Automatic annotation (TrEMBL):
Source species of the chain: Miscanthus lutarioriparius
Key word DNA damage present: no
Record's protein name: 4-coumarate--CoA ligase
GO MF term list: 4-coumarate-CoA ligase activity; ATP binding
Domain AMP-dependent synthetase/ligase residue range list: 14-186
Species lineage: Eukaryota, Viridiplantae, Streptophyta, Embryophyta, Tracheophyta
């Protein structure tokens, strides 16, 4: 596992000069694997925030000469939403995990902070946070990708209805297999049997496709899809689109129950300071850019999208996993 983390953070060889800042909770698999075991095992320097807060994060980056920042998309969104570029000292790289970053977010961030390279990682609690990652700036420029498969990983894309394996470019459920996949859920045989196949494939519950060159793209969580008259609407796609609106600071799209159509997309929107964006303007912005069944049909304005430690678990199953008892170092 340490080997895989070292590849992800490009720490092979003698270059162990990076200083990392921990913004993610260590009870979550992201922090547990990246910080509590992986980077520590590599001998990297780690600064730990007791709790994520933007001002405290900036102070630590500057005071301790942080060069490498693993984070989740909401932090990146907050850094981008700031009217002026924030002082980032020696920060040169950040890696984002938990949910996909859109092309607009990556490009917007690169424009505002050209000195910082963005990498991405993909994984689940059930796979020890391992699965895929972009390990170079060049790989990250393939927008929206979670990267190439991690070492020791097999993957296939499966039609969730028929169980049939799908070819390149086709979207279906991602199944992965590797030595880091969990043995099962604690005292829950039923959940284990529906998640692990007898020959060791982990059904990730993520809707993905893999392109011709082997890059993985995560479309959304299978279970979180909004079902509008049987059509599937990925909330992440609408959230990414809405974040491109110049007057929207943050957004969350949810399924709104409806007797006639089943569910329709509803958006909770945080307006930027001074904006007087209306419900209708939000809906019209979306309508012009999506298929009719994906339309946002209800909007509510809020002052913030709640994001506490538990809500960082964006792409992770709720069940607790028993991980392999392999030695970490
Ligand atoms: C996959 O999609 C890419 C981008 O749209 C396209 O260039 C490529 O030809 C496709 N390959 C196959 C095998 O469908
Ligand atoms: C904001 O918009 C609402 C309705 O769209 C309008 O009633 C109100 O006067 C506007 N306020 C400002 C400050 O423009
Ligand atoms: C996270 O926020 C939700 C909603 O605001 C709240 O119900 C929950 O108790 C919070 N959890 C923690 C660990 O703070």
């Amino acid at each position: 596992m340490v080997q895989i983390i070292m590849t992800r953070f490009r720490l092979e060889g003698s270059d162990r000069t990076e200083t990392f800042l921990c913004t993610v909770p260590m009870f979550h698999v992201y922090g547990l694997v990246t910080f509590a075991t992986g980077l520590l095992g590599c001998g990297a320097t780690i600064i730990v925030l007791s709790k994520y807060e933007l001002p405290e994060m900036l102070r630590s980056i500057n005071e301790y000469g942080v060069t490498y920042l693993p984070l989740v998309p909401p932090i990146l969104v907050a850094m981008l939403a700031h009217p002026k570029p924030l002082p980032l000292g020696n920060l040169r790289k950040l890696v984002s995990g938990g949910a996909p970053l859109s092309k607009e977010l990556i490009e917007g961030f690169k424009e505002k902070y050209p000195q910082v390279e963005i990498l991405q990682g993909y994984g689940l609690t059930e796979s020890t946070a391992i699965g895929a990652s972009t390990d170079s700036a060049e790989e990250s420029r393939r927008y929206g990708t979670a990267g190439l498969l991690s070492p020791n990983t097999e993957a296939k894309i499966v039609d969730p209805e028929t169980g049939e394996a799908l070819p390149v470019n086709r979207t279906g459920e991602l199944w992965i297999r590797g030595p880091y996949v969990m043995k099962g859920y604690f005292k829950n045989t039923e959940a284990t049997q529906s998640t692990l196949t007898p020959d060791g494939w982990l059904k990730t519950g993520d809707l993905c496709y893999i392109d011709e060159d082997g890059y993985l793209f995560v479309v959304d969580r299978l279970k979180e899809l909004i079902k509008y008259k049987g059509y599937q609407v990925p909330p992440a796609e609408l959230e990414a689109l809405l974040l491109t609106h110049p007057e929207i600071q943050d957004v969350a799209v949810i399924p709104f129950p409806d007797r006639e159509v089943g569910q329709f997309p509803m958006a909770y929107v945080v307006r930027k300071k001074g904006s007087n964006l209306s419900e209708r303007e939000v809906m019209e912005f979306v309508v012009k850019q999506v298929a009719p069944y994906k339309k946002v049909r209800k909007v509510a304005f809020v002052t913030e999208i709640p994001k506490n430690a538990s809500e960082f678990t964006v792409v992770i199953h709720e069940q607790r996993a028993i991980l392999y008892a392999a030695p970490v170092l």
